[in-house]
Amino acid sequence: MADSPEAFVADILAKTHGEADPVLARALAEVSARLVEWMADDLAVPLSLVTDFPYPGHSSFRCHTVPGRIGTVLLDLLMAQVTKSELIDMYVPARLIDVLAPDGVVSGVIVETPEGREEIPTRAVLLATNGFGANRELVQRYIPEIAGAVYHGSEESTGDALRIGAKLGAESAYLDAYQGHAALAMPSATLAGWATVMHGGLLVNSGGERFGDETQGYSEYAKESLAHADGRSWIIIDQRIHDSCLSFQDFRDTVETGGVRWAGDAQALAAQIGVDADGLKKTLVRARNAALGTAADSFGRMSWEARWKAGWAPSPSSLPSSTPKAA
Ligand SMILES: Cc1cc2nc3c(=O)[nH]c(=O)nc-3n(C[C@H](O)[C@H](O)[C@H](O)COP(=O)(O)OP(=O)(O)OC[C@H]3O[C@@H](n4cnc5c(N)ncnc54)[C@H](O)[C@@H]3O)c2cc1C
Fold it and tell me: From CA 290, how far away is CA 46, in angstroms rounded?
């Protein structure tokens, strides 16, 4: 299918319900294809296009990945290029404490290293210290709807750029924007991943009940999980979905650390994971009907992979719930 920056921007604006900054969205969409080509051609990052399932909100296949489909591989490859480059000096460990800007003109920075504080003269600084997810107080202040969730990002994301930028008189915006994830497996603290859902899986609460259209996205669903499942839900998958997700290192880690439970039927699965058996049975029957297209999904979910996969024809033998598993 042909793709374009216009189509990408339309997807972003639709998924964010018109809240995204259209100028910024346009700028990022315009540069996205060139960025992917630069990473592949100039930085030798072995990128490939994900085509085995659609990411939520994307009308075209445009998400790229690296072998293992995990961020650490990408970071290692980028670090190798940084180390090779004569244009970049790494100064690690060093924490940016402040930016010096007497009379509004940047003249240097103060950094803290294990040896103490030091001043480095510079005429320009790019503040790129990520967000403030690790700062509970700021999360509570700006994004109270997600303050009760488990934080699974870098402990260094304490909002230093926000603090320093505000001191310099910079404006801030979109402080309530965040990336959530409703598929963090516990207690292993590994990502089961949303490919489970996009391949056909569904989420249930302790009543064995679904609580929304899971395909709206893993970030959006974190809030739903907090509201309807106390932040603890189960992803129900079968063997086909399990096998489809093995291309993700995170999913393999989840399996290897015991995050997935197997059972032969809904009753046994409910007993294993401690959810209501009648609720789970009803949920699986309803999901089966929705996937078959014989009944409308009560949450309006339209994406059931077994239905959209080319060549799939509704027949009981191809139902996705023969051997349920949960993650
Ligand atoms: C579990 C997980 C899975 C993810 N999966 C995906 C995915 O599949 N695809 C995707 O596109 N994105 C994914 N993301 C999101 C992606 O990792 C981030 O969007 C991206 O890393 C943000 O880049 P950044 O450079 O803004 O911040 P970061 O990558 O966080 O870099 C900021 C750096 O600044 C440093 N720092 C902070 N404060 C200071 C200070 N005061 N002084 C000096 N240094 C400082 C930090 O240590 C860090 O190294 C995932 C994130 C997580 C947590």
Answer: 38
What residue's CA is closest to ligand 1, atom 41? 96
Atom of ligand 1 nearest to the CA of 96: 42
Q: And the tokens for 294? A: 């014989």
| DSSP 8-state class, residue 74 | H
Distance of CA 180 from the midpoint of ligand 1 (Å): 14
Residue nearest atom 24 in ligand 1 by C-alpha distance = 130
Inter-residue contact 97 to 112 (CB < 8 Å):
yes
The per-residue pLDDT string of the chain (327 residues; one tens digit each, 9 = 90 and over) reads: 689 999 999 999 999 999 999 999 999 999 999 999 999 999 999 999 999 999 999 999 999 999 999 999 999 999 999 999 999 999 999 999 999 999 899 999 999 999 999 999 999 999 999 999 999 999 999 999 999 999 999 999 999 999 999 999 999 999 999 999 999 998 888 999 999 999 999 999 999 999 999 999 999 999 999 999 999 999 999 999 999 999 999 999 999 999 999 999 999 999 999 999 999 999 999 999 999 889 999 999 998 986 655 444 433 333 333 345 666
Write the residue with the smallest CA distance to atom 17 of ligand 1. Answer: 71
Q: Which of 192, 241, 233 is nearest to 211 (CA)?
A: 233
Q: Best substitution site from 154, 174, 186 to test ligand 1's pocket, by max atoms within 8 Å of Cβ?
A: 154
In the three-class reduction of DSSP (H, G, I as helix; E, B as strand; rest coil), residue 102 is classed as helix
User: How remote is the CA of residue 59 from the centroid of ligand 1, in Å?
Assistant: 26
Ligand 1 binding pocket (C-beta < 6 A) is: 71, 95-96, 128-130, 152-154, 156-157, 160, 191
Beta bridge partners of 111: 96, 118
Domains of the chain are 5-84 (no CATH), 184-326 (3.90.700.10)
Nearest residue to 286 (alpha-carbon basis) of 313, 321, 256: 321
User: Could you tell me the distance, in angstroms and rounded to a whole number, from the CA of residue 110 to the centre of ligand 1?
Assistant: 22
| Best residue for ligand 1 mutational test, from 74, 111, 130 (most atoms within 8 Å of Cβ) | 130
